[in-house]
Amino acid sequence: MLNNIGLPGLLLIAVVVLVLFGRGKISSLMGEVGKGITSFKKGVAEGTKELDDASKESAETARDVTPTEDKDKV
């Protein structure tokens, strides 16, 4: 469906959106989108850091829980 739009169709859509919402509204909307993307990237980086820290901590405190056989019971 979107394969047939082409450049003239995209330009027409852009002009209609600009007329309907105005330049100021679109500018503020794009600013909010940029802030959202920045916040998302920051959250992903913090989450990754927390996971890395947790895995390092668990690796440092890991202990051997392999059951051992008692020769007296056998």
Overview of the molecule:
With 74 residues, the protein is an all-alpha fold. It has a domain of 33 residues. Helix content is 73%, strand content 0%. It contains two helices and no strands. The longest helix has 38 residues. The radius of gyration is 28 Å and the shape is elongated. The mean pLDDT is 84. GO terms for molecular function: protein transmembrane transporter activity. Pfam families: TatA_B_E. Keywords: Cell membrane, Membrane, Protein transport, Translocation, Transmembrane, Transmembrane helix, Transport. Its main location: membrane.
Relevant terms:
73% helix; elongated; mainly alpha
Topology, element by element:
Blueprint (H helix, E strand, L loop, with lengths): L5 H16 L1 H38 L14
